[in-house]
Design brief:
Blueprint: E1 11-14, H1 22-26, E2 32-38, H2 41-44, H3 47-57, E3 61-68, H4 74-87, E4 91-96, H5 98-113, E5 133-137, E6 149-154, E7 159-164, E8 172-175, H6 177-180, H7 185-204, H8 210-232, H9 235-255, H10 259-271, H11 275-304, H12 309-324, H13 340-348, H14 351-354, H15 363-375
Parallel strand pairs: 1-8, 2-3, 2-4, 4-5, 5-8
Antiparallel strand pairs: 6-7
Helix pairs in contact: 4-5, 7-8, 7-9, 7-11, 8-9, 8-12, 10-11, 10-13, 11-12, 11-15, 13-15
Length: 383
């Protein structure tokens, strides 16, 4: 029996050069914009001036907040919200990878509803109206431009936390593949695996639906076909990857993420490992673990990709990781097996992710997955 709910607010504009349409789109939503971005790329690339000019030419005033760090903290969101309130902006524009877009979402919440970012962390669900958001991704991984999540960092507890709610889905997402041409290959690899993990986790999720699976399967297909060339710098492949990232964002918007994120967060919060790279390290083992419960479903996806069963899908993920230079094991990222106890403790605290899979891992199973990550994925090629 088919049964699901599907809600996807927001409008997506996808074509080369659409960044130039920012002013026209933003003028429909407000008159004074807070432009939220990172500390380097927007300014160095010249896009900051282009964005400001587009907004100002359409009659908007612009305030710039360009202090968003990777894995933005609750404190950064609060600083941005204070600036938004003091400047009396009525619109937030997020330009960058997942970090600036997620920070922009958090700022839109706090600036409109008051208090601090910590007041709105899940399990609270945002249902109130927030400042309208326009999102412009510059990488091909997070899909944040279409999701109801803002992933932030609580630096006090060294944990990832999330603000959740449909009101924070950007009203307009401008996906301009020209912007992705600036990415170095290493970033294209990391963000590409962020998108692939989103697509596969949504597909493996216990909350997956026929519609979320449509988005997930197409995203996986595009990534398998284009990731390597995107890392090598192909503009056409990067365009396909930006589209695939957006599709995966829609998929997790409805199905959520699983143990890949739950176990990967430790790598980021405790060792500053790029989020997409952290996902890549865990993804093959998640496929292997979940195949115990949904092997038939993974077999169907593998068949669509011309692969032999879920094992063929796992081996294809491993092949892609080898080809784009994902490190072999956790030790190469500076982690020590002496940390295993703390890694398991932290991972088990991400119940929202772990309980979203078709099997909920025990602490011993989490330890076993991490142990395999220390041994390295070459073990998967012969098992």
């Amino acid at each position: 029996m088919i049964s699901f709910n599907f809600v996807q607010p927001g409008r997506v504009v996808f074509h080369r050069g659409c960044v130039a349409e920012l002013g026209r789109e933003a003028s429909k939503l407000g008159s004074k914009a807070l432009l939220v971005t990172g500390t380097r790329f927007a300014r160095r690339s010249g896009y900051l001036d282009k964005l400001k000019s587009s907004l100002e030419e359409c009659g908007l005033s612009v305030v710039v907040f360009d202090r968003v760090e990777p894995n933005p903290s609750l404190e950064t969101v609060d600083r941005g919200a204070r600036l938004a309130i003091e400047s009396r902006v009525d619109l937030v524009v997020g330009f960058g990878g997942g970090s600036p877009m997620d920070a922009a979402k958090g700022i839109a919440v706090v600036a409109k509803l008051g208090g601090s970012a910590a007041d709105y962390i899940y399990p609270r669900i945002i249902e109130e109206e927030v400042l309208p958001i326009v999102a412009i991704p510059t990488t091909t991984g997070t899909g944040s431009e279409v999701t109801r999540y803002a992933v932030l960092t609580d630096t006090g507890t060294r944990k990832k936390v999330v603000i959740v709610g449909y009101p924070i889905v950007p009203r307009v997402a401008l996906l301009d593949p020209d912007v992705a041409d600036y990415m170095p290959g290493r970033l294209a690899a990391g963000t590409g695996f962020d998108a692939l993990s989103h697509a596969l986790e949504a597909y493996m999720s216990r909350r997956a639906t026929p519609i979320s699976d449509l988005f997930a399967r197409e995203s996986v297909r595009l990534i398998v076909e284009n990731l390597v060339e995107a890392v090598r710098g192909s503009k056409e492949a990067r365009e396909a990857m930006m589209y695939a990232s957006m599709l995966a964002g829609v998929a997790i918007n409805h199905a959520g993420t699983t143990l890949v994120h739950g176990l990967g967060y430790y790598l980021t919060t405790h060792h500053d490992v790029h989020h997409g790279l952290a996902n890549a390290m865990l993804l093959p083992y998640a496929i292997e673990f979940y195949a115990r419960a949904i092997g038939d479903k993974l077999d169907r996806l593998a068949s669509e990709l011309g692969l032999r069963g879920w094992r063929g899908l796992l081996e294809e993920v491993v092949r892609l990781e080898d080809e784009v230079g994902i490190p072999e094991n956790l030790s190469t990222l500076g982690l020590s097996e002496g940390e295993l106890g703390e890694m398991v403790r932290v991972a088990m605290s991400y119940k929202r992710n772990l309980e979203n899979g078709p099997i909920v891992p025990s602490p011993d199973e989490v330890r076993a997955i991490y142990a395999k990550c220390f041994k390295g994925r070459s073990e998967l090629k012969t098992s």
